[in-house]
Amino acid sequence: MSSTLSSQALVEELQARSREVDPLVNAICTPNPAALTDAVQLDTERDQGRVRGPLHGVPVLVKDNIDTAGLLTTAGSLALAEQPPPPQDAVLVQRLRAAGCVILGKTNLSEWANFRGSSSSSGWSGYGGLTRNPYALNRSAGGSSSGSGAAVAAGLTDFAIGTETNGSIVCPAALNGIVGLKPTVGLVSQQGIVPIAHSQDTAGPMTRTVRQAAALLNVLTGGGTDYTEHCRGDDLSNVRIGVPRGPLWGYSLGLDQVIEQALETLSRCGATLVDHLSLPTPGGDEDQLQVLAHEMKIDMAAYLATRAPGGPKTLDDLIAFNRDHAEVELKWFGQELFERAAATEGLDSPAYVSARLTALRAGRDGIDDLLRDNQLDALVSPSYSPAWSIDLVNGDNVLGGSSSHAALAGYPLLSVPAGLVSGLPVGITFSGTGRSDATLIRLAHAFETARIKADGPFPTPEFTQWV
């Protein structure tokens, strides 16, 4: 998108682009019919000398589990698609509008942010259908912020909002060859976002560049910190970065080869790499599921109470709706995660308290101990395995990823495109302690700058089948 265009021209350009390519990828589930009117109004404000900020007039797509007044917010489910739009914007959407952003529309997602059934296919929802990867239309766009990732990659916007509980920003960012920033939990307001678990949920930027992600984070956090100040070129002298080989490497040979080259790029930037480290195994799946299931029951009821009377108000209501509409909602996978969450006994239960303590030990203690013991500024690892083939019958086939430790800890992650494996994008992830978002932005921007100097711009998708 050209920065010299008016907001009206930008919106018209992106709407035309959407008509051309979105039928192939299905990233946008609900266009905003007021987008062009809003853009014209923002152009008028600019002409009158009122500029709300650096993103004045910039079109932004918002994941469809984030409340937008006047537009459906469905979390991908027909249960909410049948309800009136939310009565007010989520806090982060209020901030986008206050900063002069144009809400271009809502992006499809993995239904209920991929926490309904264990054999789900990322990018599919009952309301929005299936989102596909622009680099390989028969391969996954990742989850659960599938539409946001695919939209940026497909050129439908430079700026999108995703949400993450465990991997839902950084996974689709890596698979779609874009930048994905999962902030420290609590840095961005959770109000008005359809929840999974308050200890791990956060919204965050999905953009073409690290600088754009930093600019969007400024808005999402309320502007108290200018994260773009940390985009300072590619000099990483006096920076120490840890490389935890275990358990974050070794599941994809092609991915490992790309990230080895990325480590060489970081070294050329002046960074000191402390290699062959390890993080503790991030607990068993059982502990992680206990945390999410217990928090979801409480958090979902609190969210549903904000929606219109007469709609679903509890997980039990949602479960019943899915059974009544099984021909669509339960066609490809079940709702055993919903059912497990509905059977939990509150946040005082011994099962939850024990699982949460285990999660914190593996997440926060594991990351912080490694940083402290080795005097590190951050960690770096492969992001996610290359995009897997879409298989609605059997579900996702994810070989591995880098998000679990930070998810359990509530700590930030930043995935940046690193290269291609057989034509499929893969990323490198920077991680650190809580509130180290600015440090990660500095490191990721330096890597991005150096990689582009060496290899040129990241290849654009061709919207073809991968064979």
Automatic annotation (TrEMBL):
Superkingdom of origin: Bacteria
Record GO terms (molecular function): amidase activity
User: Known Gene3D superfamilies for this protein?
Assistant: Amidase signature (AS) domain
- The answer to whether the entry has keyword Lipid metabolism is no
Give one Pfam family: Amidase
Annotated signal sequence range:
none
Q: What InterPro entries does this protein map onto?
A: Amidase_dom, AS_sf
E.C. number, please?
3.5.1.4
Q: What is this protein called?
A: Amidase
Tagged with keyword RNA-binding: no
Keywords attached to this Swiss-Prot or TrEMBL record, sorted alphabetically, are: Hydrolase
The chain positions of domain Amidase read: 10-440
Transmembrane intervals: none
